[in-house]
Fold these 4 entries.
Entry 1:
Amino acid sequence: MEKENRLIYAKKQGAIATILLNRPDKRNALNLEMWVTLSRLLEELAADEQTKVVVIRGADETAFAAGADISEFLSNRSSAKKAKEYNDLSMEAVDRLHRFPKPTIALIRKYAVGGGLDVALSCDFRFSAEDGIFAITPAKLGIVYNLTSTKRLVDLVGPSKAKEILYTARSLDAQEAYRIGLIDRIYGSTELADKTYEFATLIAERSQVSVRGTKQMVQAILSGHTEENEEIAELVLQSFDSDDYMEGVRAFLEKRKPQFR
């Protein structure tokens, strides 16, 4: 895993890995190096058999991520060609997170704005402190928000609220974000981390055959699948050949807690 003096790094504790955004002087604004590193870390954690759940958070309480680093735009997005190169790399990281095969949780303190909120929206869950601030601001920059990120927003809050967020570029506090479904839970600042990792631990204790199969199933539904195809049907049937299935049944019959491996 990465060293803690990096702008973004990962650390592991048991079955839970944490990706930390570590640029507090810029409220963890994501620069090109961070996008590229995020993509690589996700690739490594996807292949790591020990890791069952990934939490993404700021390294301290300064912010989750206050968007993409706009100070880089004049150099890295100074033309349509350069913008495409930048967008391809940042979107690769976000798409890799969205398609990540294991459960992901965004632990949010203060700012989750623009590209930072896009990272959070690509996670399975978003848990926020009471001081969470949320916005997507292309309307302040003359940029058209991309299709895949817009779809993720629409999937969570519906078309009208998505339009409002994007048309106005205004900030939402944690309570409003929770009411419209942008985030899943709100906790006090002192309990947020404990509650997040408690939830991550619960998921890690469950059958990963079931958990990862469910994630794949939900993503298929969100992609427009309304009927089982051969791949989805096989996903269900293969679970009956898994060690987890046998352990789950035995544990139920023996009236004990299952020990999934």
Note: The mean pLDDT is 89.
Entry 2:
Amino acid sequence: MRIAIIAAGEMGAGVGARLHAKGAEVVTSLVGRGSGSAERARHAGMIAIDQDEALVAAADMVLSILPPADAVALAQRLAPALKAAKGKTLYADCNAVAPETVKRVAAIVTAAGSRFVDVGIIGGPPRPEGYTPRFYASGEAGNELARLTQFGLDIRPVEGGIGAASALKMAYASLTKGFTAIGIASARGAAKGRVAAALQAELAESQPHLFAWLQRQIPTVYPKAYRWVGEMEEIARHLGADPGAQMFAGAARSYESLARQWRDGGEEEPGFLADIFRR
């Protein structure tokens, strides 16, 4: 089986490496990508094909694994190539987007004559030692994606049609990444009030499990906070008029600020977080 993965980010390359290790041929596009993506693709055994029509023609499936803001644009970019493939290629949107957004992607893809699967990935990238995230799949073509179980992926069907898998992803991320954003806000408030040490001691005593979770989670956020901005915006879009949407719009701005601090400070942890949540 030949599978195209766009793009070779941390998750995309991890998925590509797992599929390649299990015997699939994995191709990707490096158009607009940097040296880091090229190195991840090479290490994962992914073959670069930078002409879209050739890329799609070479694939039985296309897995779109991108920052949420890029999901629609990729479908629009590949639509001519999908049309040229004349229905041969299955397109799976595996991005952290709202059901409303994934339906836009589905409309573009199906108008080009391709079958479509809505996928929500829950968990981190596959690891060589065996860990794999869950790929929740919805839509009529979801059973076709299940073929990837033979190549080491954990595919789980979700009832409800296109949008259901994305809704599940939104609900899950609301808790995990949403709660991480609350931890960041807590740290900012403690730093502003100069009570970081007192908060750290209180959390360790009265909320040890919660504190341990934040200690594991928050230090991993810095280099990927820029990707979570769009995910929080998608959750807010999905919630719509619900008052909770404002909370996730705020979380998006919090991650945006954290990403900017990380970018401007290089590898240095933002001090207000390091004071509380560093182990």
Note: The CA atoms of residues 159 and 245 lie 25 Å apart.
Entry 3:
Amino acid sequence: MKKALFALLAVALLPQGAHAAGPIKIGMTVPGLQFPFFVTMKNEAEQAAAKLGATIIFVDAQNDSAKQQAAVENFVAQKVDAILISPMTVDSLVPAIEEAAKAGIPVATVDRKANTDAVLVHVGADNVQGGRAAAKYIIDKLGNKGSVIELEGTPGASAAIDRKTGFDEVIKKSNVKLLVSQTAEFNRAKGQSVMESLIQKYPNFDAVFGANDEMIIGAVEAMSAAGIKGKATCGFDATPDAFAYMKEGKLGATIDQFPGKQASQALGYLVDFVKSKKKPAQQETEWDDVVDAIDKLDG
């Protein structure tokens, strides 16, 4: 009886809104683990969660918006303490995120944004600035002349929109001509097949920008198969495969977005809120120090 009374008193003495004893449960879903960027994000998020006294319930959306929506709805049904999401597109998870908010479950988005104010916080690198950095690299490599092919990411994804915005902005102010901009949906195989087609339509290109490393690697393979050499190339995300291609001289550059650090910071905000209802100083945190990884191999 005394033990039961003590337990009741302990709960009653918890600060209002504080989390009871035990690990904090955080639901996490990303577009797909077929993308190395999100593998890094998941692995480092799980490491960060362990240090913060949290456990992650992870769901791979497998590049399917409906699966990702179902995952978030299941997190709400399971009554997790918080949810960490990198949404497929800006609109696909809005209803599910707003449902979570109504249930009192804080949601943080990372890397990719959602078109709703119901999130506690968004943490990401500045994808527009990253697109600008990629364009500047291409312009410098071409001596501010020639032409470039652009491979866009998944239509509707904030990362795809922002990277294209930054890249196009700088290219249009230069003397480099943008021949064509076409989606390959952040996918390596599609990057290769799209590039194979574009090589036939635009044989006199001088450079290729892929809005992620998977697409640019696919494009590099298409060019290699066609016997095309000496083109300026730039990817995005600084994945291990991209650095391997750079070491072999197959890829010129990639842009580093630090997916693990983004997720770790977002997790910190979620855990602080769950424990003490402490909100981040601002709802959106975008790093403006996107690192151009072109010379990283020299370090």
Note: The first helix runs from residue 2 to 12.
Entry 4:
Amino acid sequence: MVTSKLLIVGDSFSANTGDLSWTTQLDYQVTNLSAAGSSEYRILKSLQTQNCSKFDRIIIVHTSPNRIYVPFNPLHQNTNTHKNCDLIYQDVKSLADTQPFAKNVAWWFENIFDLDTAMDMHQLIVDKIIDLTTGNKCLHLSFFDIDHPMIYNLHRIWKKRPGDINHLSLQGNLEVAQFVRNNL
């Protein structure tokens, strides 16, 4: 019988709760607040809705520094999985030929967006999340190539085992679940 409580907050790499997802292969009572397309700021705000002391363990799945928070994204307003999606260049660029909003946002990314600023802001938010989870048994993961001493970089698993379940194949999900079991 599962009695330990686990909170998961992150982006689409942890949003899937289907039977094959690594998030459901863990022996915990799981509260999963992850959402596809979440920026680091959205992850922080989701975490802040919870009383972390009510959980035995916490997993934070950090996202790309290039994903920019927006309170409303008209590109995905009619989808169940991405209605709260934040902006990332690859998404808007792929829709720029058919969506005026996407064309404008792609222009912004190409002409105004500053990667150094985004990296600095991402780091500040990551540090805030780490502060909020200090004192909890917490595992910080990312599937993006992020270099941070407190974050396990699982980018290699995603690149080696891409697929349709949390962007991973079944084998990739099994590997992540085992990694989490070994490190949580």
Note: The longest strand covers residues 5-10.
